[in-house]
Amino acid sequence: MTEVHMPIETGPAPETKAATPSGTPNADVGGAFEGFMRDYAGWREENDRRLAEIERRGHVDPLIEEKLARLDAAVDEGRRRAETLALKAARPRLGLEGAGTSVVDLDRKAAFEAYVRTGDAGRLARLEEKALSAGSSADGGYVAPPELERQVMMRLSQASPIRAIAGNRQVSGNVFNKPYSPVGATVGWVAETGARAQTTTQTLQQLAFPTMELYAMPAATGALLDDAAIDVEAWIADEVEQAFAEQEGAAFVNGDGVSKPKGFMAYGRVDNASWAWGSLGYVATGVAGALPSSNPSDKLVDLVYALRAGYRQNASWVMNRRTQAEIRKLKDGQGHYLWQPPATAGQPATLMNFPVVEAEDMPTIATDACPIAFGDFRRGYLVVDRVGVRVLRDPYSAKPYVLFYTTKRVGGGIQDFDAIKLLKFGTA
């Protein structure tokens, strides 16, 4: 998901989350959320005015439309700013010091820091040899300490929209194979003393989720590496977080499966009435490139109930911000907006009481496009991570800067085709 981040000045992070003096992260989050709610209240008032104008005069003053567009942009920007601050406030501190830390972990942290700062790979190579892990300073770099890997993965789960709601598996190999039965298990009822009929042989098939290499290459100056106050692990995690999140977000939605994960929008689609395993079912709006002019929200209801009850209880909406801006204008029969802002900072907005996940890589509303997905993504889409984040120090390619070629392997694909449904803006 590609987001525009506004420069934000914050004071030093306090040790306790209960502290709320001005300038602390919690105060900044609260202030940003209050600003978002004020913008949303102004937008709602102006949109009600627009709807009243249409009902009274049959058209809208262009000045009202222009003002509404500005307010709409302000609401989106305010929400993104509040979410960004909430994400930063929720980030755990890096570092291995503390109870339960092993001597091996501390040795590895010190050896990795020496490698990053000075290029001294001797201690790190010896540790990897002891762990039966072959380090390659000329080719694949060295495996980062487990704490750095955990923090990178934790940050990605917060910053990457689809990863945050999808299922996840960690593997040590290059491919994760998952068996499944296309017809389900063979079951039946029988009396306590009744004869048991022989069941048919279970037919199993296999889904394969290969992991692909994802990389980022942050650059550092010599002065930064010489500064003992800089936590190099935290610096690397900060630098690769957004790059990895953006690439993952695009791949999990639209990836073609070639050198990247296969996104859920890259699979075949069929009308939900003709749905079969291997494709995603869709509900058509009946209008090319738009919702019906009469009772448009009924199509959202149809999409919700196209999903079976077992999936609905944990379902989420997925759409980009432009689609969300259109959906935000819909009301129910009592005049209440279907889209509701988050109750607190860091929580998602809701649509018909289901959370809304904003994924910028989802398609925009157009004829025969499917810009809205609804489903239980934890059961429907699987993200596979191979254990290990590798770092290769390169002081030669971009002198006087030192590059850090950081890689991780990740795959993804649909694991349950019945758990996700799409809304198609078309006639059939």
Explain what you see.
The protein is of the alpha+beta class and 428 residues long. Among the domains are: 25-90; 144-182 and 203-320 and 359-428, Major capsid protein gp5 fold (2-Layer Sandwich), CATH 3.30.2400.10. 37% of the residues lie in helices and 19% in strands. It contains twelve helices and 17 strands. The strands form three sheets. An eight-stranded mixed beta sheet has the order 7-8-17-13-9-12-11-10. Strands 1, 2, 5, 6, 14, 15 and 16 form a seven-stranded mixed beta sheet that branches. Strands 3-4 form a two-stranded antiparallel sheet. Helix 1 (25-57) runs antiparallel to helix 2, helix 3 (103-118) runs antiparallel to helix 4 (122-130) and helix 5 packs across helix 8 (232-254). It is flat. The model is unreliable at 1-23, 92-101 and 132-139 (pLDDT under 50).
Name a few traits of the molecule.
Major capsid protein gp5 fold, eight-stranded mixed sheet, 428 residues, disordered N terminus, alpha+beta
Question: Topology, pairings included?
Answer:
Blueprint (H helix, E strand, L loop, with lengths): L24 H33 L4 H29 L12 H16 L3 H9 L11 E2 L2 H14 L1 H5 L1 E5 L3 E6 L24 E6 L1 E5 L2 E2 L1 H5 L5 H23 L14 E3 L8 E5 L12 H10 L2 H4 L3 E4 L1 H7 L11 E2 L9 E2 L2 E5 L13 E4 L1 H4 E6 L3 E5 L7 E13 L5 E5 L4
Parallel strand pairs: 2-14, 7-8, 8-17, 9-12
Antiparallel strand pairs: 1-15, 3-4, 5-16, 6-16, 9-13, 10-11, 11-12, 13-17, 14-16, 15-16
Helix pairs in contact: 1-2, 3-4, 5-8
